[in-house]
Design goal:
- The protein has one domain.
- About 15% of the residues lie in helices and about 35% in strands.
- The protein contains one helix and six strands.
- The protein has a six-stranded mixed β-sheet with strand order 5-4-3-2-1-6, with helices on one face.
- The N and C termini lie far apart (about 25 Å).
Length: about 80
């Protein structure tokens, strides 16, 4: 399953996670220290067992891709 990250807000520190059909899978947020990205999956979703903390957004996206056996990409649309 492919997952798309969509930026939320103007700061560039949070993203929603949805599959290609638009189903919500959770979110990713950058912690206050700026060097840690935390995956916050939906409680009953496909990502519930994925490792939560990652050193970079790329590492978090790779973990998601591995857990879903698909691609994990950034949405290139406008930010809210």
């Amino acid at each position: 399953m492919d997952v798309v990250l969509t930026p939320t807000g103007p700061t560039g520190k949070a993203w929603t996670l949805k599959d290609r059909l638009g189903r919500n899978l959770g979110s990713i947020g950058e912690t206050g220290t700026g060097d840690d990205f935390r995956i916050l999956p939906e409680a009953w979703g496909l990502l519930k067992n994925v490792k939560r903390g990652h050193a970079s957004l790329d590492a978090a996206m790779s973990a998601i891709a591995g857990a879903t056996n698909g691609a994990c990409t950034l949405d290139s649309g406008d930010w809210e």
